[in-house]
């Protein structure tokens, strides 16, 4: 990584974790090839996702980053990389709209990054943050404390993964293998943190959080349903908010909620939990695909629909 890449990142108002070199290190640790592309006026962290039959696609999470003159140049460089790698397409989950007619970008509903998120302003006092929460959110934090729940930092990824397998099976969502979460913690030791909630020595809930620059981010959470009345996940969130403030973060991102007015959304349950903490809804443009191999692109879309 050149110093110019990080310098450009630091100067952008839309800088984020997923375009920072630390995210590249994590992706490399889970065997995904990455590139840090640069022009004079733009940068892009690119991640390669391998597919069967030697195929692949490229992802630019929450990027590229550009100034007013830089978009056309970085898109050209991205296209050149995609063609050199034989990629089917390049997916960009940008923070802003791309208005370049030279590229026929297709809007896609498939994206690793949420279209809608929720953010708390950490420049407020604790009292102000609590006051803007829904009453049930404040109450559940108190319930956890009253019940003797204790939250602490930990490196026990095995305990967290055990909880995660229970949560995934209960709520019907897929999880990664254990090494994924361990590598996330190991490759970002200054940024990623595992918090575990215990009751009478028993681990009953946990979460992985990432702190970088202005942002504290809630990434993964899990809990034991048998202890749901103790409200441990609420106290974990509150402790993570406190940690983010200590590290000088200005915002706390719950990462993903269901879009406004979405019916029967798969995130409806977790959205109800997150919204109890108040905050501001953030909306992002839909991801866009730069199609490089039309036949394989449409075959891939059919494959995704059939899964």
Quick overview:
This protein is α+β, with helices and mostly antiparallel strands. Helices cover 36% and strands 26% of the residues. It has helices at residues 3-10, 21-29, 71-84, 126-131, 135-146, 157-171, 178-187, 232-246, 268-275, 294-306; strands spanning 34-39, 42-50, 56-61, 65-66, 89-93, 105-107, 116-121, 150-154, 192-199, 202-212, 215-223, 251-253, 280-283, 288-291.
Oligomer: single chain
Order of helices and strands: HHEEEEHEEEHHEHHEEEHEHEEH
Number of helices: 10
On the 0 to 100 scale, the average pLDDT is 92
Structural class computed from helices and strand pairing: alpha+beta
Distance between the termini: 37 Å
Query: Approximately how much helix is present in the residues?
Result: 25-40%
**CATH third-level topology of the largest domain:** Aminopeptidase
Q: What is the CATH-assigned architecture of the largest domain?
A: 3-Layer(aba) Sandwich
CATH homologous superfamily of the largest domain?
Gcn5-related N-acetyltransferase (GNAT)
State the shape: globular
User: Largest beta sheet, briefly?
Assistant: 7 strands, mixed
């Amino acid at each position: 990584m050149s110093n110019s890449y990080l310098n450009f990142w630091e100067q952008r108002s839309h800088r984020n974790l997923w375009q920072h070199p630390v995210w590249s290190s994590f992706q490399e640790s889970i065997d995904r090839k990455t590139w840090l592309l640069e022009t004079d006026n733009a940068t892009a962290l690119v991640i390669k996702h391998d597919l069967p039959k030697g195929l692949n696609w490229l992802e630019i999470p929450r990027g590229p980053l550009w100034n007013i003159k830089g978009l056309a140049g970085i898109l050209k460089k991205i296209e050149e990389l995609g063609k050199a790698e034989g990629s089917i397409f390049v997916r960009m989950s940008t923070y802003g709209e791309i208005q370049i007619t030279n590229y026929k970008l297709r809007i896609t509903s498939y994206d690793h990054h949420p279209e809608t998120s929720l953010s708390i302003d950490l420049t407020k006092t604790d009292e102000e943050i609590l006051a803007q929460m829904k009453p049930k959110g404040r109450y559940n934090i108190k319930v956890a404390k009253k019940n003797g729940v204790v939250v602490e930092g930990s490196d026990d990824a095995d305990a967290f993964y055990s909880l995660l397998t229970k949560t995934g099976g209960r709520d019907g969502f897929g999880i990664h293998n254990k090494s994924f979460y361990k590598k996330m913690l190991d490759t970002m030791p200054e940024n990623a943190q595992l918090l575990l909630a215990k009751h009478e020595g028993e681990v009953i809930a946990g979460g992985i959080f990432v702190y970088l620059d202005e942002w504290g981010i809630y990434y993964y959470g899990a809990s034991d349903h048998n202890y749901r009345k103790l409200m441990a996940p609420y106290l974990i969130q509150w402790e993570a908010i406190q940690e983010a403030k200590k590290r000088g973060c200005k915002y706390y991102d719950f990462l993903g909620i269901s879009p406004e007015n979405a019916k029967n959304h798969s995130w409806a349950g977790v959205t109800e939990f997150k919204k109890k903490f108040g905050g501001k809804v953030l909306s992002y443009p839909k991801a866009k695909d730069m199609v490089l191999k039309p036949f394989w692109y449409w075959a891939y879309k059919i494959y995704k629909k059939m899964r």
